[in-house]
Design goal:
The chain is built from six helices and no strands. It starts with 5 loop residues before the first helix and ends with a helix. It is elongated, with a radius of gyration of 29 Å. It is 84% helix and 0% strand. About 4% of the residues have low confidence. With 134 residues, it is mainly α.
């Protein structure tokens, strides 16, 4: 370890970091190629051949030429994912407007209200709650 100076260690770590970062960029470019529906098959094949045969130059040229549209596709994907998540949460929460029926939450609230008014006792409440949640 004495014959390997500290500066060389830092340079080795920097090169390793840059190499890993370049692999992330390479995979990002390849996934963007296959995700883009505006390119036809031959254009995708051409870009893929360029990225594989001349990796550093191919990735750099791809980012210069198609970087802006790549960002727009990422933003659209994030927006669509957020909308799908919100829709799922609304459906899972059982909002009465979307499904037309009553949700478990509103049924449990009605059961708790009946118990509070004394219409049902604690044992009946627990039985009905277990039946609802089953």
């Amino acid at each position: 370890m004495d014959d390997y100076p500290l500066l060389n260690l830092f340079l080795t770590m920097l090169y390793l970091f840059l190499w890993v970062m370049w692999f992330f960029l390479l995979f990002k470019v390849v996934t963007d190629l296959f995700r883009d529906h505006s390119l036809n098959g031959w254009a995708k094949a051409g870009w893929l051949v360029l990225v594989i045969l001349l990796p550093y130059l191919g990735v750099l040229v791809y980012l210069i030429v198609r970087g802006r549209s790549m960002q727009e596709r990422d933003a659209k994907l994030a927006k669509d994912s957020e909308a799908a998540f919100r829709s799922y949460v609304r459906e899972a929460a059982g909002s009465e407007g979307s499904s037309g029926g009553t949700s478990h939450v509103s049924d449990l609230a009605k059961l708790a209200e009946l118990q509070d008014r004394g219409a049902i006792n604690a044992e009946e409440y627990e039985r009905a709650k277990a039946k609802l949640l089953a």
